[in-house]
Amino acid sequence: MVVTVSLVALFGLVLFFLLRSRSLGPGAAFTAAGFGFFLASTGAAKPINQLTQSLIETVSNL
Fold it and tell me: Is the pLDDT of residue 45 over 70?
């Protein structure tokens, strides 16, 4: 839950600055998609959350 809330805040902040600077490239599309999945918690959110959690655990174990 804590990771999800943090990622929503991070994606929201990044998306805000990308939209404000009018940078609408592939990075903005990925950010918007990630923000939408984490925020809406759709059926696809569980696998995305699991992938993100495993990536975070992998990075912290390095």
Answer: no
DSSP label of 22? T
Long-range contacts made by residues 29-38, C-beta under 8 angstroms, separation at least 24?
34/7, 35/8, 35/11, 38/4, 38/7, 38/8, 38/11
Q: Is the pLDDT of residue 1 over 60?
A: no
CB crowding 34-60: b at 16 or more within 10 Å, else e:
bbebbeeeeeebeebbeebeeeeeeee
Radius of gyration of the chain (CA): 12
Residue 51: which H helix or E strand, with range?
Answer: helix 45-61
Q: Which two tokens stand for residue 52?
A: 């993100």
